[in-house]
Design a protein that fits this description.
Rossmann fold; nine-stranded mixed sheet; 9 strands
Length: about 290
Amino acid sequence: MSAVTVARADTDTADPAGVGPGGSPSLPEHRRWERVHGLAIHTRCWPGPTGAQRTPAVVLHGLGVASRMCQPVAGRLARDRPVWAPDWAGFGHSEPPSRDLDIDGHADLLADWMGTIGVPAAVLVGVSLGSQVAAALAERYPARCARLVLGSPTVQADRRTWRQQVPRWQLEQATQSGRMRAIQLGDYARCGPRRALRTFAFALADRIEDRLPQVDAPVLTCWGTRDPLITRGWVEELAARAPDGRLAVLPGAVHALSHEHPLAFARVIEHFVDSRPAREQPADRRPPRRGAA
């Protein structure tokens, strides 16, 4: 495992007017719906430059929110590759399932969604709880994962109780920009408190650290030094558990890397992808489900 430290991220924020961080223009996004498992799944997508041949990226949002939190980093990554940011079933503008899905359930649906949109394999980028879904997808469907990026990966092993999480989430709220808080309020209202709480209960029961030894793809774990939810020791442990893992430390960055620090987050992703050669895709193995739905 190796560590990568990037330039400070304190002023690296998304521009709400549609201009990318650092003054670079954001690429236009498209919105589309696909029917998967009988549900209409909403996706924001960026086609990338004309003729782009690089492996697409799939960016997965965190708990309660939806793909809007991924727009800043997705637009940056789309400078040289197609990027897809779906809303999970029951979140954002995607239809809800008949029962709430656990982590494996979301991974199974997203694996089939990738087949529906014609993306056989991608750089999977998870943010917060999205890291847990991305890791489950990479473990259960190795052929779908070219590389795995875990941004602010939850839930830390020694903090898996409601009593431990609630005060830390309150601290995390204080680190958010006004725009991020507005996105969160709107998205939480759309999914509803019952689904958000039920999904978080599934996240507390999930053991991401047990998945990573089974992930064949190169893995990058990313941590911001102002993240109150997880520690550096936790992301170091995750990187060490992966057969091919490395760590990126973002000084000054908070938990919501994809929205609050898109430039720094995109830089470490791009460096990681460019420094790891392409590999032959293994067959999917779809191991038994790790949690009850």
